[in-house]
Write a structure and sequence with these properties.
10 helices; alpha+beta; 204 residues
């Protein structure tokens, strides 16, 4: 079993990265949280790995990578504990959760489906499924960092939504736009829509 790779980042895109180790390039799928924190091309990288067998009879092994053990632990928890969630679906969930791992953990512990829906974009059905599957297990995952949503909740939801919509219109993915807006909102409670979009672009 592979724990992590330590090599050179050969290429990166939203679809995944290639890490070169001793002349061999490994294709690795990464969540948005990892993609946004990647170093520049040809720089060293250490990335924690999850191997998943896919395809007919599990004949193909795909690699999923995370910059921190915390993110990997959250991914494994979701993949292993949430019913009907395979490797790719778990990665889709992590893309949403990467907006704030601390807030996601808090939402599960406090049994708050509205928070899962409004902040992370999960449907009511999925939010309920996550709560039932993870409520007694998520405490085992250590998450560093503070909750973000508390610091931005005083900003009108309409301003946040309009900023996200504006970034999507510029060609960015919805979840990528959400993460950027969240980061831009921190410590800027009275920010205008124009400034929020401008500041969000600095995170993209």
């Amino acid at each position: 079993m592979i724990d992590y790779f330590h090599g050179i980042l050969d290429s990166k895109s939203k679809d995944g990265i290639t890490v070169e180790i001793n002349g061999i390039g490994y294709a690795i799928s990464v969540p948005l949280s990892t993609f946004l924190e990647l170093p520049e091309i040809r720089n060293p990288i250490k990335i924690y790995i999850v191997e998943a067998a896919v395809g007919l009879y599990g004949g193909i092994t795909s690699l999923y990578g995370f910059l921190t053990k915390e993110e990997r632990d959250m991914y494994l928890l979701i993949k292993d504990e949430v019913p009907g969630t395979g490797a790719k679906k778990a990665m889709e969930y992590i893309d949403k959760i990467s907006k704030s791992f601390a807030d996601f953990k808090a939402a599960i512990i406090s049994k708050n489906p509205a928070m899962l829906n409004e902040i992370f974009g999960f449907t009511k059905k999925t939010a309920d499924k996550l709560l039932v599957a993870l409520k007694d297990k998520i405490s085992t995952v250590n998450i560093s960092g503070e909750e973000k949503w508390i610091s931005i909740k005083t900003i009108k939801n309409t301003t946040i939504s309009e900023a996200i919509t504006g970034l999507i219109a510029l060609g960015y993915r919805e979840q990528q736009a959400r993460v950027a807006v969240t980061n831009a909102c921190e410590h800027n409670e009275n920010i205008t829509l124009e400034d929020l979009i401008r500041k969000s672009l600095q995170y993209l």
